[in-house]
């Protein structure tokens, strides 16, 4: 899952980025509204953390422009403690949730997990597909009760497919949501990770849709 953090406070931006990376997300950073707006327009994100008080273009304007352009990614806004009007303006502009400064990093993570899974149509922190269970809170995957040992990239790939269960996901889409802007998108690493996942899972659930991409769904005999 790929997250954009738009926050002009260098230290807070770094803390958010480091925390989210440790949680397994791919994170892009922006330090002003202009840069944040540009990245949100050009790159596909699973969620955005957006500060309201940004230089060059304020967060409300950034959000309004995204929504006017048809961008539907979930947006979590950061607001000042005593500015209730910012919360109202943010929600009215199209924000999906908000966190008030100062905040605990755990709260940001929990709210992002909720926004991402709701956007994919999942109501709880556990996503199930046949014998496979993915816990978005603990980043734990089990198959018929046995825990799988996955690398961070294998987990990101499986998580994205599970969030979009039953849908055909292209290789390009997987690359865009698993890696940052600088990744070599012509490499064949997606195919390698799919092969590893199939072996580790031991169940025939990741289907190759020729010429289109991959789809995960419960095995036909399940």
From TrEMBL:
The lineage of its organism: Bacteria, Pseudomonadati, Pseudomonadota, Alphaproteobacteria, Hyphomicrobiales. The keyword Nucleotide-binding does not apply. GO terms for biological process: regulation of DNA-templated transcription. This is Response regulator transcription factor. SMART domains: REC, Trans_reg_C. Keywords: DNA-binding, Phosphoprotein, Transcription, Transcription regulation, Two-component regulatory system. The keyword DNA-binding applies. Gene3D superfamilies: 3.40.50.2300, 6.10.250.690, Winged helix-like DNA-binding domain superfamily/Winged helix DNA-binding domain (1.10.10.10). Residues 2-116 form the Response regulatory domain. It comes from Rhizobium setariae. Residues 124-218 bind DNA. Residues 124-218 form the OmpR/PhoB-type domain.
